[in-house]
Amino acid sequence: MTKEYDLVVLGGGPGGYAAAIRASQLGLQTAIVEQDKLGGTCLHYGCIPSKALLRSAEVYRQTNEASSYGIEINNTVALNFKKVQQRKEKIIDTLHRGVEALMKQGKIDVYKGIGRILGPSIFSPMPGTISIEYENEQENTMIVPKNILLATGSNPKSIPGLAVDGKNILGSKEALELTELPASMVIVGGGVIGIEWASMLSDFGVKITVVEASSNILPNEDEAISKKLEAELRKKGIEFIKNAHILPDTLEVNEQLKINCSVNEDTRTIHTDKLLIAVGREANVTNIGLENTDILISDGVIQTDGFYRTKESHIYAIGDCIGGMQLAHVATQEGVLAAEHIAGQNPYPIEYTNVPRCIYSFPEAASVGLTEMQAVEQGFEVKVGQFPFQNNGKALVYGESEGFVKIIADVKTNDIIGVHMIGPHVTDMISEAGLAKVLNASPWEITQSIYPHPSLSEVFGEAALAVEGLQIHG
After folding, report:
1. What is the rounded average pLDDT of the residues 95-120?
2. Omega of the bond prior to 454 within 30 degrees of 0, cis?
3. Do 230 and 221 form a contact (C-beta atoms < 8 A)?
4. Of 171, 208, 323, 440, whose CB count within 10 A is highest?
């Protein structure tokens, strides 16, 4: 007998499993179809493993710098990359088992296979019956949902002529599985993923060159953040080649890789041990049965309304497969909102300018809202306050005083329209700025909060004072 559900989720990543949990809480009989492992790319091949490696790189760097804190290490500091990888895998396994437990707790059925939407059939007059295909010879399972949520995520983009082979040319997934570190690596792409890898591998002692097509790394971030982070990464020995494009036809593989890139009108030859492709991600919208529906796809992503309904009103879509910010925490919130809408509630739509964005390099960077350039382009008259970590006692004690907090406010309304940070622990500090943005706080309102001393958070308060030129320690 074909099993029926109130909601079937295709994809068990952060957005998919969060939606399933929320749907279960709201009384909907729910199932997830996941072809790999619950937790998706974020848990197994992205956010979590990369941050685990970044943490090991941070400890290694700090240990090598211990003498500056008065700690003398007589023996040579050695990096055991095998143990680094073992620690990463242990963290992934712990979190994976946690997600599996949440599914059992929520009485959510999990099917491990490839789910495809079928057209109208004997099971349903509307498109929506899900056929689940398994890796073994097991017969397909048919399940009939009243509603479907597509949370199929994305895959790394490729560069024509530079196919990832897992040996010389790597994607982020293959890089996470390295058993030993190369002496050198070229990273194609100066976006968030490329910069995090550049910072991490440099801290591990790998010689890094970043090739970026734009005139700045992190082209979507505030220019002040982009320039400061590049300057700090250059201090670590990372080389940047900007306004550049790899010429795939020139790739030669011998003892090292030899490849040319065009820089403006010149050509430059690079020799390296490994090549990492980090040029963004593209939505997974194929092989899931969309051709059996009236769902619209534009620019490679599924089109939805503000509550994530597709043109088929009983089919919703969230996360990377609909484009947008392609962040795990965004997909999670979208999934929760979609589940609530399916359950007949009236959730408040997401305001995407209130979503924090984080870069877990060294130094860290984080932001929320508009950049200064975006604000001006959108017609805002802005006033800006900026305060450096160099003037903060806790940052000096901590030994990481490079960076600043920048606050952009609207002259007309005095509301904050953007906050940009670079420095120690700003990926944690940005949450306060995100709350201020949600509440349409003014810089003055931020200054009315009393910040503990000494703390890194004092820099946020001082930056708010600096909007009116009233900073105390500037």
Report:
1. 96
2. yes
3. no
4. 208
Q: Residues 379-403: pLDDT tens digits?
A: 999 999 999 999 999 999 999 999 9
CATH superfamily of 3-155+282-342: FAD/NAD(P)-binding domain (3.50.50.60)
User: Which residues are tagged catalytic?
Assistant: 453
Strand stretches in 304-373, DSSP E: 315-317, 357-359, 364-369
The 10 Å Cβ neighbour count of residue 150 is: 32
CATH topology of domain 158-279: FAD/NAD(P)-binding domain (3.50.50)
Alpha-carbon gap, residue 227 to 221, rounded angstroms: 10
Structure tokens, 463: 């930056």
One-letter amino acid identity for 347? Answer: P
Q: Which of helix, strand or coil describes residue 82?
A: helix
Residues 6+ apart with CB under 8 A from 285: 152, 297, 300, 301, 302, 321
Helix axes of 14-25 and 328-342: crossing angle, nearest 10 degrees: 30
Q: Which of 201, 164, 210 is nearest to 183 (CA)?
A: 201
CA distance 55 to 133: 38
Listing DSSP states for 122-161 in one string gives SS-SSS-PEEEE-SSSPPPEEEEEEEEEE---EEE--BTT
**Architecture per CATH, 363-466:** 2-Layer Sandwich (3.30)
Is the pLDDT at 123 greater than 70? The verdict is no
Q: Which pLDDT score, from 0 to 100, does residue 133 have?
A: 94
- DSSP string spanning 156-189? E--BTTB---SSSEE-HHHHHT-SS--SEEEEE-
Token look-up 């570190």 returns 181
Tell me which long-range contacts 426-429 makes (C-beta under 8 A, separation of at least 24). Answer: 426/363, 426/364, 426/365, 426/366, 427/358, 427/359, 427/360, 427/364, 427/366, 429/366, 429/405, 429/456, 429/457, 429/459, 429/460
Interior CA angle at 258 toward 253 and 264, to 5°? 145
137, with CB counted inside 10 A (0-12, 13-18, 19+), is exposed
pTM of the model: 0.95
